[in-house]
Amino acid sequence: MTFNPLEQRGIPLDRQLRSWRELNVDPIDPDHCDPYTRCRIITMNGIEVEAILFSHQLARHTPDPEIKRQLARVRYIEAQQQKVVNWLLPGVSSVLETTIAYEQVAVDLTAWVARMEPDPYLKQAYQFGVLEDFDHLYRYANLYEMIEHRKAESIVDNLTEVMPGRPTRFHHRDPVDNVRDPYAKDETNPLSKLHALTIMSAEQQTMNFYMNTGPTYMEPIARQLYQEIGLIEEEHVTHYESLVDPGETWWEQLVNHEYNECYLYYSFMEQESDPKVKAIWELHLNMELEHLHAACDLMRRHDGRDPASVLAPELPDVLTFEPNKGYLRELLDTQMDLTTLGAGYVREAHERFERMQEQIHGGEAPPSDRVMTEHDEMFGREYRVQTEGEHPDPAQREK
Amino acid sequence: MSELRTPHAGDDMAEDDDVVALLMRQHGDIRNLFDEVEAATGEERRDAFRRLVRLLAVHETAEEEVVHPFARKGFPGGEQVVKDRLAEEKAAKETLAALDELDTDDPTFMPQLLKLRRDVQEHARAEERYEFTHIRRSADVTGLAAMAKAIKAAEAMAPTRPHPGVESGAKNMALGPVAALMDRTKDTVRKAMGKG
After folding, report:
1. In terms of pLDDT, which residue wins out, A18 or B138?
2. What is the distance between the alpha carbons of residues A239 and A168, in angstroms, rounded to a whole number?
3. Residue A311 to chain B, least CA–CA distance (Å)
């Protein structure tokens, strides 16, 4: 059965407000949960955070007080949704533990989107980015073993491999080379719009998370690693947000946001293994359907256009969290040495890239390299999870 | 799980000049042992559980002898913070003692172990957030190192790794019941702290 959010009604907006008792959700058990349940929670938190921030920006650009009030009503409900979703994460998890889960999201979400993306230019943008998240996972996993004596596989549970990707020190590019070309809103596949919005939101939340939690660490190497990777998240948000066509009107963007939320809650409801979490996805889907209808009304009224003209005729195949090991190994084999030049990709280290590298590293090893040295001094080895054999790139095999 | 083993705190090559870093690693070691007990069956589970009990006993006793006394006097509000931690430790010790009476194959073992695991994990994070942060802020480098030394002394007297060759059963039994182990840990720590 196909699910068309435009044809479904949900819970009326005036019945969506939840009391403290309803907001007080039971968190997941960090030692026994399905790792992909945690990934879905982190993803939906990023999506809700983007929904809230986008609505605030829209309100700041809206002179009409009646529209401001309507946006405020829906946004308050979205703020409650964000609280429920993110509060599913347990208080006993450390920041580093949650960080490793964020990187598992970045790897398996971006890899899945890259696999499914119909537009070759957009696909390349995801393939390029995922190899960097993959390397971040590896660096944080080594830091985790140093500080907490825990192995990242206790979090990612062998669903995601942990080994070098494109080395983090090479992620620092001249900022102008992070800007991509946008898709064309009237020609692109509607699925591509959803993909871009999803990955942009996830990376934006990762950026927010590292910029705020990084300084809570006392260990110098941890503080420095969060600073370094936090700056790469800035690059990633630039990279992904520039894929979105800036010619979409505010109302069209609002409709895309709400539609994407329906798509993702529906997708996660379909695959959720934890019944309590599944019930939340279902409830939120039923709330989002009404948010979508309200957004569609605004678009009809202010743009004089039918929202169906910019959306997919039916909901695309569900977005799925699943292992992407083979796909990632293929990319590791073929795209490790890429960098960006303008809005494209090259294999050689060009002048602008070299200049940025010289300036930011200042002739020293960056934190992402030093974390490996310090880990080696402590354990005499690296930490990796290579369930499918040796690293595809011989230069990246453990010495 | 991969074949990589994370050595216990004190057995890696860290400098161990900071009691907080050492104890945080030990919290991870304890969590790893819970994983091991859960994953194992039969004799292996019995053995992993003995090691867990020993590590918990040594770890908690050493904390009570070394870091709590410092925290109590070391920063404003320390008295209350330690009181809360001791209450958590007492509850955990009671569950531990009850578990210690059970055979690891007993059908009620696993639910109780999971409860202990939750309590221990909450206690460990509370220590890290409400006690250790203040210790790092208020102790000087020498103090952090001296406390680390005392913790390591406790570790050394009650080895928490299986001994190659002597398969755990007999050797572990020789360490005696939990209470006696805690007493001996106390003595060792006091000696290392120069309070003999």
Report:
1. A18
2. 16
3. 44
